[in-house]
Amino acid sequence: MSRSKILTYAFAGCSVIAAYLMIRYPQIAVGGTVEGLKIWWANVFPALFPFFVLTELMIGFGVVNFAGVLMEPVMRAVFRLPGVSGFVFMMGMVSGFPAGARITAQLYKEKKISKEEAERMASFTNFSNPLFLFGVTAAGFFDLPSLGVIFALSHYIGNICVGLIMRFAGSGRSSEREKARLSLRIFSQALNSMHQERLRRRQPFGKKMGDAVIASVNTLLAIGGFIALFSMIYHLLLRVGAIHLLSSSLSAAFRTLGLTPALGPAVIPGLFELTIGDHKVAETAAPLIERVITVSGLLGFCGFSIQAQAAAILSQAGLSARLFFIGRLIQMFCSSAAAYVLFHFFQPGRASERPAIFVFEQPFDQFVHQTASSGSLITVAVLLTFIAILIKRLHDHQSDG
């Protein structure tokens, strides 16, 4: 039997089983969906929306072209990628999942990068949002804001390791046009490239802003659907006992590694939805260093929900998500190893020995809690704006007709 047929039968079987479980346990299905939507409503949407809009505007104003020319020498030498990957890397780091995949797919559609470059780029330019690393995970789940530095550095180091490994994937061919840029006056060329791109995309600012809001909200609505779906699947599998079997296997694996077996069951939710898994691990009675290493691994793996979001975005652009999935496994191990080293270096449990960088933890913690408390209001305001823009454009279209 061919691999294609096996996948067809497997997907069909899984969908039938999921439909049966939803009918058999409707209350659990609805409850799991609502739990996922609450996470999206209060945390994910308000955290990602401003960065998505900003990305759309920066692409429209030619900032991507500017960064592409300026960062060409570094990105080509280190990752064997064009300079625009530097922009994707930075925006992915600031915006969080799945911004890197989204920007990569958009640049590929606009023929700024090749298919091979896009697939390698997507494998290491997706990050957890800094607000999630410092605020939700470190300050919220662990009640120890100083851990945010460890989570962030280990997460970024893990992704950089993925990028260095993916450097050797693909054909190895390089664009002659991009090589030629290196000998020119790079900064002035970058400014000129940005100006030419803005002229090419010339539109009224209101139109640009409206397009940015609509595109960002559409992406975030799809993300909300994935979060709700995988939250529901997790709760249904928990109800039928499938999660218990998996947690027993993971407990044995953690025991073999010399870690607390209780981490095994706590990790299971994180395989489906990252936020829930991080919370469960933080609540265990395992030593702090073991919880930090485990959460760093989960942040690298990022959960099936986020992986499905990125895969859907890439597939819509005609890109394969194979390297992205491989990258998540590599990052999981690299981030865990980096967290182990960084934990001993920073010693976050000893306030008297913390590096100077931790003096900012209290103001940052206050900012995070203030932002999180208004997350639902931000979501409501943005959705109302989104609806208003759609109504106005529909009315203008009818008037023109």
From TrEMBL:
<dbReference type="InterPro" id="IPR011642">
    <property type="entry name" value="Gate_dom"/>
</dbReference>
<protein>
    <submittedName>
        <fullName>Sporulation integral membrane protein YlbJ</fullName>
    </submittedName>
</protein>
<feature type="transmembrane region" description="Helical">
    <location>
        <begin position="367"/>
        <end position="391"/>
    </location>
</feature>
<keyword id="KW-1133">Transmembrane helix</keyword>
<keyword id="KW-0812">Transmembrane</keyword>
<keyword id="KW-0472">Membrane</keyword>
<feature type="transmembrane region" description="Helical">
    <location>
        <begin position="212"/>
        <end position="237"/>
    </location>
</feature>
<dbReference type="Pfam" id="PF07670">
    <property type="entry name" value="Gate"/>
</dbReference>
<feature type="transmembrane region" description="Helical">
    <location>
        <begin position="292"/>
        <end position="314"/>
    </location>
</feature>
<feature type="transmembrane region" description="Helical">
    <location>
        <begin position="6"/>
        <end position="23"/>
    </location>
</feature>
<dbReference type="InterPro" id="IPR014226">
    <property type="entry name" value="Spore_IM_YlbJ"/>
</dbReference>
<feature type="transmembrane region" description="Helical">
    <location>
        <begin position="121"/>
        <end position="142"/>
    </location>
</feature>
<feature type="domain" description="Nucleoside transporter/FeoB GTPase Gate">
    <location>
        <begin position="43"/>
        <end position="140"/>
    </location>
</feature>
<feature type="transmembrane region" description="Helical">
    <location>
        <begin position="77"/>
        <end position="100"/>
    </location>
</feature>
<feature type="transmembrane region" description="Helical">
    <location>
        <begin position="44"/>
        <end position="71"/>
    </location>
</feature>
<feature type="transmembrane region" description="Helical">
    <location>
        <begin position="326"/>
        <end position="347"/>
    </location>
</feature>
